[in-house]
Amino acid sequence: MITPGDIIFTRKCPFCAEVIKLNKSECASCRDGLPSSSLRKIGTYKCAYAFPYSGEYRKAVLEYKFNGKHYYCASFAEYMKSAVDAQLADCSFDVVTYVPIYGEKRYRFNHSRTLAKHLSRLLSLPCEQLLVKTKHTQKQHLLSLDDRRHNVSGVFSSVDVSGKNILLVDDIITSGYTLAECIRTLKYGGANSVFCVTLCAVIFD
Ligand SMILES: [Zn+2]
């Protein structure tokens, strides 16, 4: 007979699906190949990210976003915390927020909100929705780089964030236009500082 004491909770490596211990983010072999975090600039603003959006990392993110592997979030948030610790070591934050989706309350799952909530716990910070997306937009990745800036221009609004130092979370940075628009909106809302962190970044050659 199986008793509650016999049940061993496990998690899976997001890159190869091998069963791993609860206190691990990935399996030993995938850990060896993990890239270091890095930094992108969005104008004068900094965006830390954990890994490039390619190969097995891209595959893991797609499984998380579109194939129900929501539990990868625990590992992903740990990578994002490492990226914050390494790339934004001199920065301090009062609050974690995230890039919202249109009709936020009607959707059960915003990938960026879930990452932000996990990350905020690791950083011992509150996670709050500070931005609202006020218009539906076309998906950025379906547009040319030229059209992406126009697509997100003026589509966010902010609550009063006077004097706050904000860590803004998104899942992927591609052109950076979405994050740039969120930063602009938060600064307009009174933010003292805004720094960004994403799980991964599309690297342009
Ligand atoms: Zn693995």
**CATH architecture descriptor text:** 3-Layer(aba) Sandwich
Provide the low-confidence segments as ranges. Answer: none
Q: What helical percentage do the residues reach?
A: 25-40%
Task: Compute the average pLDDT.
Answer: 90
Order of helices and strands: EEHEEHHEHEHEEHE
Question: How large a portion of the residues is in β-strands, by DSSP E?
Answer: 15-25%
How many beta-strand runs?
A: 9
Distance between the termini: 58 Å
Number of helices: 6
Largest sheet: 5 strands, mixed
Overall geometry comes to globular
Strands, helices and their partners?
Layout: E1 11-12, E2 19-20, H1 28-33, E3 38-42, E4 45-52, H2 55-66, H3 73-87, E5 95-98, H4 111-122, E6 131-133, H5 145-152, E7 156-158, E8 165-173, H6 177-188, E9 193-201
Parallel strand pairs: 4-9, 5-8, 8-9
Antiparallel strand pairs: 1-2, 3-4, 6-7
Bound molecules: zinc ion (ZN).
Keywords:
alpha/beta, binds zinc ion, 5-stranded mixed sheet, 22% strand, globular, Rossmann fold, 205 residues, 9 strands, two-stranded antiparallel ribbon
In brief:
The chain has 205 residues and is of the alpha/beta class.
Model description:
This protein is α/β, with parallel strands linked by helices and 205 residues long. It has a single domain, classed as Rossmann fold (3-Layer(aba) Sandwich), CATH 3.40.50.2020. The chain has helices spanning 28-33, 55-66, 73-87, 111-122, 145-152, 177-188, and strands at residues 11-12, 19-20, 38-42, 45-52, 95-98, 131-133, 156-158, 165-173, 193-201. The strands form three sheets. A five-stranded mixed sheet has the order 3-4-9-8-5. It has a two-stranded antiparallel ribbon with strand order 1-2. It has a two-stranded antiparallel sheet with strand order 6-7. Strand 1 and strand 2 form a beta hairpin. The N and C termini lie far apart (58 Å). The structure holds zinc ion (ZN).
